[in-house]
Design a protein that fits this description.
This protein is mainly beta. The chain is built from three helices and 15 strands. The radius of gyration is 17 Å and the shape is globular.
Length: about 200
Amino acid sequence: MQSASESNEPWDHFLDNDDWVEGPITTGGCCCGAIRYLVDFSAGENWTPDTQTCQCTRCRKSTGAITPTFITLHPRQFYWHDLDTDELPSHHAPAALREYHSSSGLSRFYCGDCGSSLCWLGDETDHMVELLVGTFDEECLIGRHTGDGLKREGGHGIELAGDLCKHFWSQNAIPGVTDRPDGAIRFVQGSRFGETIS
């Protein structure tokens, strides 16, 4: 395994867009805070984004979740926050970022300090960023505390995770747990264009 900080590939081509446009901005990172990122939803056409799950064994094992939830981002929407220089958006992958080649043509990225899974890139998806929704900041998902008991305001949880549109590797569904119909397209395996389950 090599640190992505030793070679910025495959992140180099992510930051060719010099047009920083005001719009929906969402932040997140790993559990320990060594890795921070920013997503600029105004830089793409997917607000609200397509929310998806995957039940392949590798996704389950790399995240510890039985149905990892993720969104697909265009590279120009995703930026690192360089905590050493406070540069934002940053052209450099964080020093703590690690890469694991879990299968042919697919790399998973995680924090080398705390182990948090963050995202993956694959040849099948033309190097789009597949970002795990659970890594968004709490305030982005459920809003900020108002000081009035448990009440919160703001947050984009509904937009980021409320409308599941695709389930991948549905052949691995756990009967009675992860196989419940919810209106989303259920793919037998991983291909967006493959066989589906009705």
